[in-house]
Design brief:
mainly alpha
Length: 91
C-alpha cells in the first residue's frame, strides 16, 4: 500500500512537471528585454549627431552659462536649517 502511494506521488509529480514544460512562454518571458531595448532606443535620438560639426542652435551663451552655473551650484552643500523641537510634558 505504501508503494502504491509513493508510485502515485512520483507519477503525479512527473505529470505535473511535464505539463508545466509544455505551457509555453509566460507574459514575463515574452516581454523579457523590451524595457532595455526601449530605453536604449529612446536615448539614441540622432545616431549621426557625432559626425555633424555644425553648432547647436536654440540656446544662447548667457542661458547656457546660467544653466551650467545653476547645475554646479546644486552640488554644493547648503547650510542646514536649525531644527526646533517643542517638548510637552515631563522632560
Amino acid at each position: 500500500m505504501k508503494r502504491l502511494y509513493i508510485l502515485a506521488g512520483v507519477i503525479s509529480a512527473l505529470t505535473f512537471s511535464a505539463s508545466a514544460s509544455f505551457a509555453g512562454k509566460s507574459a514575463l518571458q515574452a516581454d523579457y528585454g523590451n524595457s532595455l531595448r526601449t530605453a536604449k532606443a529612446n536615448q539614441i535620438l540622432d545616431p549621426q549627431a557625432g559626425k555633424e560639426l555644425a553648432p547647436v542652435y536654440g540656446l544662447d551663451g548667457r542661458s547656457a552659462r546660467g544653466a551650467v552655473e545653476k547645475r554646479m551650484d546644486s552640488f554644493e552643500k547648503k547650510a542646514e536649517k536649525p531644527v526646533y523641537s517643542l517638548s510637552i510634558g515631563k522632560p
